[in-house]
Design a protein that fits this description.
Its main location: cytoplasm. With 307 residues, the chain is α/β, with parallel strands linked by helices. The protein is built from 9 helices and 9 strands. Strands 1-9-8-7-2-6-3 form a 7-stranded mixed β-sheet. The protein has a two-stranded antiparallel sheet with strand order 4-5. Bound molecules: adenosine-5'-diphosphate (ADP) and ligand PAZ.
Length: 307
């Protein structure tokens, strides 16, 4: 079956007409706070794309809460509330982090009493030493480069209301897991989990990461465009690395630009594009919503899963 048949395909104009009064648009100051490094998100996107998306997520949340409550009544026992988990998937450099941060901001503003936290699955990559040991350093981002069991255990613990969960931190600057640094997850009401692998089927587990998701978004674009965003981000990272000897990109930043860009193009072709084609794109049809972007990160189509 063609994966597109199970979705409503909505143009930007159709999608934005689903806007309802009730959620105030972000102010410029709030927008500045969430802009990632190198981002140029527009207030128009917030208004036209993210406000309707927040409404849709609210519908899913109400259904989730109601089902949870009814299940408790059926079991004749109190079922403590469990966090609502949202997955954000897509290629390396397609804009997942940006989308996830925007969602976090929108949800926190809209549901003021709910604690909305965000994690990225980078932290579950094996450290470089371990990747070398497993001979998969050139497969960073591929399914085998993540400790999926640890991610699944973490999600299970969050759903079961465990407090003060520690997850490892990844740094793009050192291109590795930061030793002995952790992020603390403290009983969120809503948790956003962002990563290239979140809709994948783990090789050796019976449970999928997405079994823990109550809503999911896939950020999509043509691979040639994503490559250009990857290269732009790479150049921006180089500019940051120029005076920082601890930065993974320091040597490239201070050498000839052509050679550095040639290196980045090769990484895109050999690693990230392969990963996109083999392991990430096949998961698109599992998302509840697909946000499609075109030139300049403009969102031109939203697909909403029918069933
Ligand atoms: N809406 C947007 N407008 C402009 N630039 C964007 C937007 N979304 C992402 N970017 C840029 O695209 C690049 C990749 O985005 P990022 O969120 O880091 O991707 P990912 O988390 O998928 O790797 C970054 O340089 C980022 O600044
Ligand atoms: C850490 C990643 C696997 C995941 O990236 P993300 O989309 O979260 O930025 C990726 O940024 C990465 O390092 N890929 C390996 C090849 C490379 O781009 O250097």
């Amino acid at each position: 079956m063609d994966e597109r048949t199970n979705y409503y395909h909505l143009t930007r104009d159709e999608w934005r007409s689903f806007y309802r009064n009730g959620i105030a648009p972000l102010s410029d100051t709030e927008l500045q706070q969430i802009k990632g490094f190198n981002d140029q998100i527009s207030l128009q996107d917030v208004q036209e794309i993210y406000i309707p998306l927040t409404h849709l997520i609210h519908i899913y949340m109400k259904e989730y809460d109601s089902l949870h409550l009814s299940k408790g009544l059926f079991m004749q026992e109190f079922a403590p509330p469990a966090p609502f988990i949202i997955g954000v998937a897509g290629s390396v450099a397609v804009g997942k982090s940006t989308t996830a941060r925007l969602l976090q901001m929108m949800l926190s503003r809209t549901f003021k009493r709910r604690n909305v936290q965000l994690i990225t699955t980078d932290g579950f990559l094996y450290p470089t030493d371990e990747l070398i040991k497993r001979d998969i350093l050139d497969k960073k981002g591929f399914p085998e480069s993540y400790d999926m069991e640890r991610l699944l255990n973490f999600l299970n613990a969050v759903k079961n209301g465990e407090d003060d969960l520690k997850i490892p931190k990844y740094s793009h600057e050192i291109y590795d897991i930061i030793p002995d640094e952790f992020e603390l997850i403290t009983q969120p009401d809503i948790l956003i989990v962002e990563g290239i692998n979140v809709l994948q089927l783990p090789a050796n587990q019976q449970i999928y990461v997405s079994d823990f998701f109550d809503f999911s978004v896939f950020v999509d674009a043509e691979p040639d465009l994503i490559e250009s965003w990857y290269l732009e981000r790479f150049e921006a990272l180089l500019n940051l690395a120029k005076d920082d000897k601890t930065n993974y990109y320091y040597e490239y930043a201070n050498g000839p630009r052509d050679a550095a860009l040639g290196f980045a193009k090769k990484i895109w072709q050999d690693v990230n594009l392969k990963n996109l084609e083999q392991f990430i794109l096949p998961t698109r049809s599992r998302a509840d919503v697909v946000i499609h972007k075109t030139n300049n990160h403009t969102i031109d189509e939203i697909s909403l899963r029918k069933f």
